[in-house]
Amino acid sequence: MPIRIQSDLPARSILENENIFVMTENRAATQDIRPLKIAIINLMPTKEATETQLLRLLGNTPLQIDISLVRMEDHISTHTAEEHLERFYIPSSEVFKHKYDGMIITGAPVEQMPFEDVDYWASLCDIMDYAKENVFSTLYICWGAQAGLYHNYGIKKIPLEKKLFGVFPNERLTKNEPLLRGFDDTFPVPTSRHTTVSRAAVNRVSDLTVLATPTAASGVLREAGEEPTLIKSSDNRSIYMMGHLEYDTDTLSKEYFRDKEKGLPIEVPVNYFPSDDSSQRPRSTWRSSAHLFYSNWLNYYVYQETPYSFSK
């Protein structure tokens, strides 16, 4: 079944060319079914790219999904046209007028700033608090995950000596976790960040469970302890993903060459270009894991559990 989007959203043509089933609002209104309501708090600067990445994955399920794209009113976007935001996004204050089956809070390129210095931090905290009672399951991604762990549990982020950049093998730590159903014992996760959280700090919170970490072979081990990649709350209503399974094949490549052109200190992303040769075209090794992850989240932690009536 499809995702419901506005008929003129730019992502529509891209998704249809990939045979992703999308449905315009007019057609969806003729179907007698309650779609899942998913809000995407899009904090990424390249919002159109992030929209397409997430909609591609959310559309690969047998469920009808009604998407609300959300922009932070406290922040002026310089990478996305104001016309696009006005046409396809609702302001963050609108979120508090609705209840949602699921919510996604994306990453943001502000990880080296103190959380409190981010211009929309107070509003984001209000949304995270609101989600506890009015969203059935919230998925936090990368900086969004660090923000959620900090706000909800007081877990501080830790600066890294250098950017963690590449595609790292991860190992699942549980056998019967629905979120990882169908996953291999090890699976790749694209990663791009300057900060992390301590697995030891996460383990001290009884409400949290670490589901996956980078393998020892990946070399992602820090003094603070093994880095958790995937964490969930005991009630399954908060999921924290430290990587970017939603990334396109060329996302890390674009970031690498962008930073290189700016003269920023950037290394070739690990396990990404064939033979670590940036002149070669990268290949996706995580696409199947990405589709499984989002399908599992929507099915087991949203659709199977959320009440039919929002009043409940």
Describe it.
This protein is α/β, with parallel strands linked by helices and 312 residues long. It has nine helices and 14 strands. Strands 1, 2, 3, 4, 5, 6, 7, 8, 9, 10, 13 and 14 form a twelve-stranded mixed sheet that branches. The protein has a two-stranded antiparallel sheet with strand order 11-12. Helix 1 crosses helix 3 (47-58). The protein is globular and about 50 Å long. It starts with a strand and ends in a 9-residue tail after the last helix. The mean pLDDT is 88.
Distinctive features:
twelve-stranded mixed beta sheet; 312 residues; 9 helices; alpha/beta; globular
Secondary structure layout:
Elements: E1 3-5, H1 11-17, E2 22-24, H2 25-28, E3 36-41, H3 47-58, E4 65-71, H4 82-88, E5 89-91, E6 100-105, H5 121-134, E7 135-141, H6 143-153, E8 158-172, E9 186-196, H7 199-203, E10 208-214, E11 221-222, E12 225-226, E13 230-233, E14 238-241, H8 251-261, H9 287-303
Parallel strand pairs: 1-2, 1-4, 3-4, 3-6, 4-5, 6-7, 7-14
Antiparallel strand pairs: 8-9, 8-10, 10-13, 11-12, 13-14
